[in-house]
Amino acid sequence: MRLPNCSFQMSIAVIAGLGNPGQKYRNTRHNIGFDIVNRLAADLGGTWRVEPRFEAEMAPVQAGPNKLLLTKPLTYMNDSGRSLGAVLRYHKLEPESLLAVYDDLTLEFGRAKLSVNGSAGGHNGIANLLDLVGPGFARYRIGIGGKPHKEMDLADYVLSQFKPAERQILTERMPDFIDHIRLIVDKGIESAFNIINQRIPTSHERSHNQ
């Protein structure tokens, strides 16, 4: 699958939701990236198909004037860079053309944050991307909250399913997540920073504090 006649000039061309494939991992915290790009594909009329050469599911879509390649690596989270590195090399794209969408347990639940630089922050999927793709890609992070108690194994927590109340919050927040991604694509990283990273209480935070 090759994107037709596009000159991206370091704008976002590939939006990758990070997660783990298979029924076993559906609705888990580590798969919020998959959930968001699935919704984005549905909103933009994209159709997913497996691309074995990239070890990924991919859906080309049109967002206004922008041609995008939505991608879900099928390599499992910790090898995300293998799949996405192949995608970028094939399309002759730089890391700056990639937006990775994924979970972050250092953010409050349901909060979104946009960043570019920095370490992997303990996220194995991002560590693998830094190793195999390199720095410079944009990161759209969704807070899944911290472990309920320190003794809990980290892998058990990120691979646990959302509670019904948490799933409801994410459902309510999903339009905001999609708007953020559209903003990143339409206006660019710098403009999107100023809006996405504002510390404005989300609707569920406001309800909780009333």
Describe the structure.
- The chain is an alpha/beta fold and 210 residues long.
- It has one domain (14-209): Peptidyl-tRNA hydrolase (Rossmann fold, 3-Layer(aba) Sandwich).
- Helix content is 36%, strand content 19%.
- It contains 7 helices and 7 strands; from the N terminus they run βαβββαββαβαααα.
- A 7-stranded mixed sheet has the order 2-3-4-1-5-7-6.
- Helix 2 packs parallel to helix 3 and helix 5 (164-187) runs antiparallel to helix 6.
- The chain is globular.
- The N and C termini lie far apart (50 Å).
- Mean pLDDT is 91; it is low at 2-9.
Shape: globular
The count of helical stretches stands at 7
Sheet-strand content, in percent, reads 15-25%
Detail the poorly predicted runs.
Answer: 2-9
User: Under CATH, the topology is which?
Assistant: Rossmann fold
Q: Between the first and last Cα atoms, what is the distance in angstroms?
A: 50 Å
Written as H for each helix and E for each strand, in order along the chain, the element string is: EHEEEHEEHEHHHH
Strand tally is 7
CATH superfamily: Peptidyl-tRNA hydrolase
Q: Domains counted in the coordinates: how many?
A: 1
Outline of this structure?
The protein is 36% helix and 19% strand. It contains seven helices and seven strands. Strand 3 and strand 4 (66-73) form a beta hairpin.
Strand and helix map with partners:
Blueprint: E1 14-17, H1 32-43, E2 49-51, E3 56-63, E4 66-73, H2 80-90, E5 98-104, E6 112-115, H3 124-132, E7 138-143, H4 154-158, H5 164-187, H6 189-196, H7 203-209
Parallel strand pairs: 1-4, 1-5, 5-7
Antiparallel strand pairs: 2-3, 3-4, 6-7
Helix pairs in contact: 2-3, 5-6
